[in-house]
Amino acid sequence: MRAGGRLIAVPAGSVSGSTVGSTAARSGNRLRFSRSIGCPGTGRAGNDAAGCSETRQTGCETAGSWIVGSTPAKRSSIRFTGHTDSGSKGRRGDSQVEILYAVLIISGLGLVFGVGLSYASKVFAVKVDERVELVREVLPGANCGACGYSGCDGYASAIVAGEADTNCCPVGGNEVEKKIAEIMGVEPEGIKRVAARVLCNGRQSVSKEKFEYRGIDSCAAAAQVYGGHKACVYGCLGHGDCMRACPFDAIIMVGGIARVIEDRCKACGKCVAACPKNLIELIDKTKKYSVMCRSRDKGALTRSNCQVGCIGCRRCVRACPQQAIYMEHETLARIDYDKCDNCGECTKVCPMMAIRVMDFGD
Question: Are the beta carbons of 230 and 304 closer than 8 angstroms?
Fold first, then answer.
């Protein structure tokens, strides 16, 4: 471009105008063509010694090159591109159309997928007996597993399927069992009255300890250290894992061992799972007697470790008129609660007072 007697090179992409082959003058941030420049070989004469060697227009964009210089040796080629105002408006229109197409395509896909999912939900729907929902609403929702199932949902499904009795929820009690029986159209049988029982009587005052434990206040942690700090490796460690696991606050610590408050116990079984010594069992409340010891050691060792431990003397076995007591591992007396009639003869002959009365009331 000639300006003030000099030829000025214009960078490619900075030229904007409507006529190719004209000199450009700057106006604001744009260069507009103002007069003609000759194009050698095109038959058009120009007033300058510069010429347009090539022009190309594609859509709204014009591109080409200028040959600058008065002699062939001094000539150089300068590329340029130009955009017309009408081309800019055309590109904006094309962009809007493309956005509209994208929106329409996405909307169409959403509609197709929605119809497909709606159809699939009806075709593959699993029919559920409405009684399952009714039974589930009646259950307390503790999800404790005391019924023998993973939770209240599983128990409700088992009842409707005829795989479980209506009286297996100790948390709900007889009131819940009656409602379930009414839904199922059967007669209520009454809840099996069971409660947790800690089978250890080795309080701190009657049992020995082999070392002083100063670790984490947890039975599970203490049991990892040589079986626990108590001399009897089968006894209650008294750190309260079962107490913390109980959702009904039915367990307290007395004399360094766990004790169950029978009026609060719902027989959910969470304490049973929490005890690392397996000392807690769910026992029929109507059975008043239990051997409060789980030691498998021989009598002499048990006696040296605990003053109220079972020494395996078998006196209770011989004294029971119902033959409800048997020996486990040859050293530990156990009661068969299906045979026990609460006569109490076993407690009269036990020299260690290991068999205790656990009256849970009516």
Answer: no
